[in-house]
Amino acid sequence: MNPAAQQKKDLEAAGCAALGEERLADDVARRLLEAPALTELGLAADAMRRRLHPESVVTYIVDRNINYTNVCVAKCNFCAFYRLPGDAGGYLLSPEELNAKARETVALGGTGILMQGGLHPELGIEFYERLLADLKRHHPLHLHAFSPPEIVHFAAVSKLSIREVLTRLQRAGLDSIPGGGAEILVDRVREAYNAHKSTSAQWLEVMETAHQEGIPTTATMMFGGLEDLDDRITHLRLLRALQDRTGGFTAFIGWTYQPKNTELGGRATSAADYLRTLAVSRLYLDNFKNIQASWVTMGVKTGQVALTFGANDMGSIMIEENVVRAAGAVNELDRANMERVIRDAGFTPVQRDTLYGPVAA
Hints:
Layout: H1 3-18, H2 26-32, H3 38-52, E1 57-61, E2 63-67, H4 95-107, E3 112-116, H5 125-138, E4 142-145, H6 148-158, H7 162-172, H8 187-193, H9 200-212, E5 217-223, H10 229-246, E6 249-256, H11 271-284, E7 290-292, H12 295-298, H13 300-306, E8 313-316, H14 323-326, H15 335-344, E9 348-352
Parallel strand pairs: 1-8, 1-9, 2-3, 3-4, 5-6, 6-7
Helix pairs in contact: 1-2, 1-3, 3-11, 4-5, 5-7, 6-7, 6-9, 9-10
């Protein structure tokens, strides 16, 4: 089949996926990642977004991203945030500091905390249980905390199973789990980023076990780094298959590698690559209701365009964010500006909670 005819056929398949008539096949999704017809691809993704969210609402959340420590033994070469044990600039927040951040979050109308940290070699499960219980006891906040690599690390340090760690954290106050640390779920790529972090299978095991225990999670993908386009499709396929089994993912967040100040270096991916990958993700992940726009890494203007390429959510106003900022991406919005940005894109802004329910005005 000649390239023009193949592209037309692939876009027809994208249209069928948008209407819910058939699933987007891997080979079609792969070709769409290279298709020059960016506008047509965006229209298909937008059609699917409007089918799933016909009310023309775009949601956002007021929460805070707390990094309780930057001490980490993983040594990811794409991360500009971590410090090794003993390095200057390493920190571990005290209970007083954590509670002060939580109080400010509540005062600013926040409903939750996204809390992640480095893989600290000296902290056992009891530390994290106390941390959660203390925050839960003092603040009316949803605790969305500890990415899968952290859970795997907690299990190793405390000599517990993944399930034991999750059930203990849940009892202590954990409400849901962020999808961080996924990067690309292909071990060849993960090992090139870091040979000391969790494997693809471990990331998926944490998520599946969490879903079995009634703990909802999000899913992420960091792209534009060392992966190829086949790797992106493999990542999406693994997420879709797990969601078929459990239904426990609340949202998908694709974000782009930020090279500044990192050991890995390289170049940032383009807005066109981001939007194309976002659109394909929306069409492929037919069992995910929510797709988030990554304005924090791509900038506000691209974030607005993303709302017509399949995204229905703008994520957090980011009362605090440290990891992406350390890699040189500094984009900020307060609540008023977030709502203005959404309205300017032609949608109605609605504040949501961590589990994508509306927050009463």
